[in-house]
Amino acid sequence: MELGLTQEVELSAPVIRLERITLMFFSGSIAVNYRLLVRIPATFIVVLKMLFVVCVVAQAQPPQGVAPEIEAAQLRIKLYEGQEYPLQRRLLDSKIKVANARVDSLERQLAEYEQFTKFKHSGPLFGQLEFVKVAQVEAKEELKNLTEEKNLLQRFHADKVRLMQLELEMLKRSLR
User: Fold this and answer.
1) pTM for the model
2) In terms of residue numbers, what domain contains 158?
């Protein structure tokens, strides 16, 4: 069984034309063959390529006549927002995950050891039980500190970026 359809959709500049849809049935499955023809004027493509190249070149090179101090300040802002801040957040997130896993593991270990402390005269694992309790407190404190550090990093991110922007503006004014 085969169906043949032609449908034309017009947009502002490019014209998209769906030439033919062929449906074939093979042992219960449907195979669909779409042939999409796109007609775009050549001048439109050339202009788009030129705009793309201009944008790439404009972002890659600093404006002419910019002092190295200003360019360095601009790069510091760009590197902080694009590299340092995301890296710090990822590191803190991974440390928090590890600390959470450690707390959970120590809680399970403590529950397992507490089963054996109910002997008549003494618990056979007293030293290990105390070690796990201290390690659990340490892990919870580490988790709390990491969470607070992440919150502070996020809370003061905008202020740090603004400070770097103000330093850049002051540098621009001093070099005029």
Assistant:
1) 0.55
2) 63-174
Q: What share of the chain is helix, strand, coil (3-state, %, to 5)?
A: 65, 15, 20
Residues 49 and 77 in one domain: no
Q: Per-residue pLDDT averaged across 49-58, rounded?
A: 69
Residues 68 and 12 in one domain: no
Q: Are 19 and 35 in contact (CB under 8 A)?
A: yes
Close Cβ partners of 80 (under 8 Å, ≥ 6 residues apart): 160, 161, 164
- Block residue for tokens 């070690």: 131
How do residues 70-81 score in pLDDT, each as one tens digit? 888 888 899 998
Q: How many helices (H) and strands (E) does the chain have?
A: 5, 3
If phi over 0 gives left and psi between -120 and 50 gives alpha, with beta otherwise, what is residue 27?
A: left
* 156 phi/psi in degrees, rounded to 5: -100, 10
